[in-house]
Specification:
Blueprint: H1 3-18, H2 25-32, H3 36-39, H4 46-67, H5 79-83, H6 87-103, H7 105-117, H8 122-149, H9 158-178, H10 183-201
């Protein structure tokens, strides 16, 4: 593993355990096995390290979601998939996404770090909301609006539908983060939620 990549991995590990503000460049360098001046040859500051971690996390997430035809920044790409999707396929798609979010070490650690930092930094609080709430909500409200227009979903407010759909998923993801021993239990509840939503609002 090259030093630049190791810096990101060790930084993310420390950030997810202690929080961004509590970790110094010197501590990162020690974890990597180098001196701070050597670290600055690769990254100019701790903020630059964070920015690189953010970009890598986004890339990993997008690479995975592409494999299951979910493009959170553009619901237009996915409308043909979800117009015809069965309840079983929808359950599998959502479970795959949640399992990836929980078990991909890089993505999981980044989310844990952001969960800690949302209460310490206004900037990271805004980033947390944008990435883990607003982006997901905007994607689903846009997708549901198109599905309503296509006669696939019941003619209800797509923004409210997205809130009803997303909220339990985000709650269960957080519960699995806090209580990993209950993951099987919450995955069953997740499936029940998806099937109930499908039965209630899918009209095609």
């Amino acid at each position: 593993m090259d030093t630049k990549h190791k810096i990101l991995l060790e930084s993310l590990r420390l950030f997810s355990q202690r929080g961004y503000d509590a970790v110094s460049v010197e501590q990162i360098a020690t974890a990597v096995g180098i001196k701070a001046p050597s670290l600055y040859k690769h990254y100019k500051s701790k903020q630059e390290i964070f920015n690189a971690i953010f970009e890598e996390t986004a890339r990993r997430y997008e690479d995975f979601t592409d494999t299951i035809s979910v493009h959170v920044t553009d619901s237009e790409q996915d409308i043909t998939v979800f117009e015809k999707i069965t309840a079983d396929d929808l359950v599998q798609k959502v479970k795959s996404l949640i399992e990836y979010s929980l078990h991909d070490e890089y993505v999981s650690r980044f989310r844990r770090m952001m969960t800690i930092e949302q209460f310490r930094s206004p900037e990271l609080s805004e980033l947390y909301s944008r990435r883990y709430v607003n982006q997901i909500h905007d994607y689903h409200s846009g997708l549901f609006s198109k599905m309503i227009a296509a006669g696939v979903l019941a003619d209800e407010d797509p923004v409210i539908l997205a809130m009803m759909y997303d909220a339990p998923i985000l709650v269960m993801l957080g519960e699995c983060d806090r209580h990993p021993e209950k993951e099987e239990e919450y995955m069953k509840k997740l499936e029940e939620h998806i099937r109930l939503f499908y039965r209630t609002f899918n009209i095609k």
